[in-house]
Amino acid sequence: MPSDLGLDTNLTAVGFRLNRDTRPNRFYPSAGTFLDLTADFFSRGLGSKYSFQSYKLNFSKYWNLTQNQVLASGSFACFTSGEPPFYGNCIYGTNSQLRGYTAGRYLDRYMFGTQMEYRLVLPKRFGLAGFGGLGEVVPGGNQPSRTKNFLPSGGGGVRFELSKKYHVNLRVDFAQGKDSHTWSMGVGEAF
């Protein structure tokens, strides 16, 4: 068996995380903002097989349009440097960032995107959501954004309220990307 297949890999890092959350309800945000910034420094000196750095930023803002309508926006960015393994790069399509893409189809050193979602509460514990966004994966920092490589996404879904007290929804979403589509299901909103 070849010696460097990556089947026995240790990744060890030191880092920091900055988190600020002003949402009144994290299960169904209808106002406020959410900021999450992480920086991880993987090093052979710490026992890691690879030496690289990873930086991730997520920012979401929510507007309560009416009692039954919410508009949500989410933006994200990811940067890696050093010598990461392929799975240490930015991976497009994870964490509900622009649904419509299979995770891992697009991955590289730099990634960014933004999306909007409209949420509507209906009678009998049901709801609807419609969403769309745009992002890109960039191979190197010296390469500017190329509009022909933008990765759009759009779709919609239904919601069923599992908990009236905390407004926790079961969501089922269908999303279409540039060259693929996805179905996803989860508890709580995508962002």
Write up what this structure looks like.
The chain is an all-beta fold and 191 residues long. The protein has no helices and 11 strands. The strands form 2 sheets. Strands 1-2-3-4-7-8-9-10-11 form a 9-stranded antiparallel beta sheet, with no helix packed on it. The protein has a two-stranded antiparallel sheet with strand order 5-6. It is globular, with a radius of gyration of 19 Å. The model has no long low-confidence stretch (mean pLDDT 91).
The helix-strand sequence is: EEEEEEEEEEE
Apparent shape: globular
Order of neighbouring strands in the sheet with most strands = 1-2-3-4-7-8-9-10-11
Our Rg estimate from Cα atoms comes to 19 Å
Find the count of extended strands (DSSP E, 2+ residues).
11
The percent range for strand residues is over 45%
Largest sheet: 9 strands, antiparallel
Distance between the termini: 42 Å
Helicity range: under 10%
What is the mean predicted local confidence, pLDDT? Answer: 91
- Residue windows where pLDDT falls under 50 for at least 5 positions: none
> How does the helix and strand content classify structurally?
mainly beta
How many helices in DSSP terms? 0
What is the compact description of this entry?
By secondary structure, this protein is an all-beta fold.
Fold blueprint:
Elements: E1 13-21, E2 32-42, E3 52-66, E4 69-82, E5 90-91, E6 107-108, E7 110-121, E8 126-138, E9 151-163, E10 168-176, E11 181-187
Antiparallel strand pairs: 1-2, 2-3, 3-4, 4-7, 5-6, 7-8, 8-9, 9-10, 10-11
